Amino acid sequence: MADLLKDLNHEQLEAVKTTEGPLLIIAGAGTGKTTVIARRIAYIIEKKLAKPSEILALTFTDKAAGEMEERVDQLVPYGFIDTWISTFHAFGDRVLRENALEIGFSPDFKVFSKPQQVLFFQQNLFRFELDYWRPLSNPTKFISSILDFFSRLKDENVSPAEFSQYVKRQLTLSKVEGLKAKGDEKAEAKKYKELAHAFEKYEKFKDEAGFLDFGDQVVKTIELFTRRPKLLKNYQQQFKYILVDEYQDTNFAQNELVKTLASSHKNICVVGDDDQSIYKFRGAAISNILEFKKNYPKTKQVVLTVNYRSTQKILDSAYRLIRHNDPNRLEVQNKIDKKLKSIKTNVGHLPQEIFADTLSEEADLVAEEIERLINQKSVKRYTYRDFAILVRANFQADHFLRSLNMKGIPHKFVGSSGLYQQEEVSILISYLTAITNFEDSLNIYNLITSDIYQLPPTDAIKLTSFAKKKNRSLYYLLKNLEIHSSSKRRHSERSEESQDPSSTASPQDDMGMGLKEFELSSESQSIIEKILNDLDESIKLSRRQNVGKVLYDFLKRTGYLTRLDRENQVEGQIKIQNIAKFFDKIKEFEQVASNNSTQNFIEYLEALRSAGDDPATIEFDPDLDAVNVMTVHGAKGLEFPVVFMVNLVSDRFPSRYRGEAIEVPEKIIRETLPSGDWHMQEERRLFYVGVTRAMDLAYFSWSRDVGGRRLKKISPFVLEALDKPKADSIFTKLSPLEKIEKFAPAPTSTGWQTSQQVLFDVDVLKLTQGSIDDYLTCAFKYRYVHILRLPIVRHHAIAYGAALHTAVAQFFRVKKSGQLMSLGNLLEVFENAWDSEGFLTVEHEEKRKAQGKIALEQFYKRESKTKDVPSLIESPFKFSLSGVTITGRFDRVDVRKGSEVEIIDYKSSENIDEGRANSQAKESTQLAVYALYYYKSHKIIPQKLTLHFLETGIEGFYTPTQETLEKTEKLIIDTADNIRRDITNNHFAANPKYFGREPACNYCAYNSICPFSLAKIT
Q1: Mean pLDDT over each residue of the chain, to the nearest integer
Q2: Checking phi first, is residue 974 left (phi over 0); if not, alpha (psi -120 to 50) or beta?
Q3: Helix intervals (H) in 143-184
Q4: What are residue 602's DSSP bridge partners?
Q5: Contact between residue 419 and residue 615 where contact means Cβ atoms under 8 Å apart
Q6: 18: burial class by Cβ within 10 Å (0-12, 13-18, 19+)?
Q7: Does the domain spanning 421-610 belong to CATH 1.10.486.10?
Q8: pLDDT at 239 over 50
């Protein structure tokens, strides 16, 4: 207990030890709120006030939930078989899946991402009764705006029926608010009527297809509790304590969910800071935290003001700024002191100003200051990762990225958008476009000059100029060049394969004759020959394979991933991670699309981009030694020794308020709307968040000329923070010669090498039984899967096994509830869970599906006769061991009379005899880890560890002993030590395990790109 409360200041200690009634913790920036939340959870468990499963802790991001779990795990290492530390959406998802049958849902429902929503709506577009919102000249124009509108209604917990009632009332009154479109009131009401009908239909179509969206995970949980009071009571009795992090970011619906759960005991603790409420555009209701004491009159209030991050001068500047939001702040309304006090005394400077004449000059000055601080020797030494450049919007980063690049400063752009614009992703989009549209010369040009093919610029210019002169596509020109190449392949063969409509032209036309005089280097001729071969192969493959396989085949054939990996640079690894994120977008498409061809994907991608979809680039990695360039929103929750807030001019920061495309009528907004200029107040809070990310140094930079018609004024927030009446008028202005010299090439050695750089945090290592198996199979494979996270095409055996597991898990959930699922429902769950990815042909897929149904029919015959009821189904677990966090998921655990425990893992492998089944069970790392966890958390050694082979019903098993458990523990610790060593040295050996005489390479998904693969010589 002493260690649990060690090093806490007086206010933190008070927050941790307050365990009864509503508690409002107002936690300023850098005051250690995560520490307080984790210690409070551990304190409640330690004092035996509640079990871990009786505490619900909610936050907003998976990363924040994971960090909270890690902190708690370190304090209370065992017993977390059923933790409830999660995001709001993950909590709702879990409740809905556990009780889906109560409201007529299938527990294997899928959740739409925003792009999947767009595709789904587009596929059903002409089933909606739309007129204004579906203009025939551009039918998809409003899809994204409509979906955003539906999402905002769900933020306010407004159902389709309630919205329809509102519209009917307004039609009766001939009055309606919100829409900015022109026309009389009846016309406005008609537009809302269309939306009301569309909202109802959207929900109906979604339910029929077995999908939910993100908003549903909250509002349908509220609906479930409303419709099933007994179920609500069970959860209220279970969760004796409820904690909410970042409470200022909750929307109305999320707050209603929390209030519903806490209504019986009022043991609710919320942690937040109204001065850091920056997500109004996502529906956040700042009134939730401002009115908490009003909703809970007996609230105890604890204010954390001791700052462990920044210098006092930085904090004073931030405080001067945020006071301009008075009186709409808790400090005024609750009559408290929120001024932050730094533990760093007598150090630091006020935020420094950087101002220039133009934006490009501003960016250069920022890069030069980073270079100066990196090279300084007499004061504190900084590394590249210590710097952050914060922009208000993603597009504002371009000039700063360019300046860093010109200086040879390693950097990474961690954007909430911008994935499609990244060079490595842009190449892949160009390639996919090229094989679906031969006339798109721009994408062909991007492809041939890319890092993959590297056609010399002089020859690329020759080709494009000639094609433009002859009014032909660049693809047509490249194809006809082959007539004169050494390969001598007939033009007609390529035309037949490509089915290019332009290929009917004769090779002897005026263009063909001109090509005879065309001089290209032999290097260029070889490159063009490879480009055409690759395109031909891809076109053939695209006729019978989905887009994911086509793209993966292209990467494999060109060796692009292997080349990026071999470079062993920060830049190469960032590119690989962005490519992996692009494959995630393809996966999302394939999960929803009825036709997952390359052509359909390109059309889908174009629709998304026109609707404003622009996904995030790589996630923030604190261990990557590169300057961090990101938005202020993206920096929330992070800290950096040196922060540059840039482009600080009016109309950019603060930004202009543009409103929502379809405004939610004020009369159905259920939160209490703030008074005054709420947009300016939100922008000021965002600026405050940016300033308080800085630990040692903060810089404000701006320039008058940012590229528009008029010169810009300095942001009023800079003047407020520095307490200045007006801006300084002396600007750094470069001479013409200096401007030219700025374009000198970057140094040859850019400092991007990472051979001695630790790319991942090895202090707290996370492993699963799968990652342990991967490392023991081959350390180099572990690197591919868990370090680089290289994308792979999913094997058909994985898809087959996943569908079987989903069906079996649902069968046992129903059985556990005291019912027996019908065979028809079991097969229906299997069908709904089926994924076509990875199968060789349609025939292969159909035969495999039929085989799965037969296996389930046999399973049903066996299991419907037994009376055994599982204690746990698909239950996650986690435990710590010598600084290693091990996570996993039980398929099934049976606890029988006399505390006899059997852990069962279901396998979809092909036929196997009993002897081999027993051997596999004994050698299974997975079962060994399961047994170790169960022993650590329950102090009971399971009597039986079983592998159940679904296709035959054959079981293999063994009984673990204290000795085998100790061996497993040693195996985990040794493996973790070896992984830490390899990460630290940035070197993973290619040491494939052998199965008999066969190397693991033969079964490895990466054998086609691994430079050490032995698969080709076996």
Answers
A1: 84
A2: alpha
A3: 143-155, 160-173
A4: none
A5: yes
A6: middle
A7: yes
A8: yes
Q: How buried is 241 (Cβ within 10 angstroms: 0-12 exposed, 13-18 middle, 19+ buried)?
A: buried
**Cα–Cα distance, 576 to 425 (Å, whole number):** 10
For the stretch 507-533, pLDDT in tens is 445 555 455 556 777 888 888 888 888
Angle CA 95–588–797, to nearest 5: 85
Parse the chain into domains and list their residue ranges.
10-103+217-304, 114-213, 352-417+620-660+672-741, 421-610, 765-792+988-1017, 870-986
The pLDDT of 304-331, averaged and rounded, is: 95
- Confirm or deny that 30 is annotated as ligand binding: yes
What are the pLDDT digits (tens) for 431-468? 999 888 888 888 888 888 888 888 887 788 888 888 87
654 preceded by cis ω (within 30°)? yes
What topology is assigned to 10-103+217-304 in CATH? Rossmann fold (3.40.50)
Q: What angle do CA 551, 555, 556 make, to 5 degrees?
A: 115
Question: At 501, is the pLDDT very low, low, confident or very high (cuts 50, 70, 90)?
Answer: very low
Q: What pLDDT, in 10s, does the model give residues 617-649?
A: 766 666 678 899 999 999 998 999 999 999 999
Gap between the Cα atoms of 100 and 217, Å rounded:
12
Closest by alpha carbon to 293, among 330, 338, 347?
330
DSSP characters over 382-401? --GGGEEEEESSGGGGHHHH
The pTM for the full model equals: 0.77
792-824 in b/e form (b: 16+ CB < 10 A) is bbbebeebbbebbbbbbbbbbbbbeeeeebebe
Query: Within 10 Å of residue 493's Cβ, how many Cβ atoms?
Result: 10
Backbone angles phi, psi at 274, to 5 degrees: -60, -25
Whether 661 has a pLDDT exceeding 70, the answer reads: yes
Contacts of 235 (CB under 8 A, 6+ apart): 95, 225, 261
Kindly indicate whether the domain formed by 352-417+620-660+672-741 is annotated with CATH number 3.40.1080.10: no
Dump strand ranges (E) for 381-529: 387-391, 411-414
Count the alpha carbons within 13 Å of 932 in the hemisphere toward its beta carbon.
Answer: 26
Query: Are the folds of 10-103+217-304 and 352-417+620-660+672-741 the same?
Result: yes
Q: What is the CATH number of domain 870-986?
A: 3.90.320.10
The answer to whether the CB of 620 falls within 8 A of the CB of 414 is yes
Q: Which has the closest alpha carbon to 351: 399, 312, 307, 384?
A: 312
Give the C-alpha distances (Å, rounded to integers) separating 107 from 103, 210, 235, 385, 1012: 10, 9, 18, 43, 43
**Alpha carbon 160 to chain centroid distance?**
29
Beta bridge partners, 697, equal: 642
Query: Which helix (H) or strand (E) element contains residue 342?
Result: strand 341-342
Judge whether 617 is annotated as a binding position: no
Tell me the pairing of strands 900-907 and 884-896: antiparallel
Say how many C-beta atoms besides its own lie within 10 A of residue 655's C-beta.
Answer: 14
65 marked among binding-site residues: no
Confidence bin at 735 (pLDDT 50/70/90): low
N residues, the chain: 1018
Residue type, 552: Y
Asked if residue 777 belongs to a known ligand binding site, the reply is no
Q: Is residue 400 over pLDDT 90?
A: yes
In single-letter form, the type of residue at position 79 comes to G
The Cα–Cα gap between 854 and 864 comes to 15
Bridge partner residues of 477 (DSSP): none
31 labelled binding-site residue: yes
DSSP 611: T
**Residue of 642 and 139 predicted with greater confidence:** 642
34 is in an annotated binding site: yes
Q: Do residues 164 and 200 touch, judged by C-beta distance below 8 A? A: yes
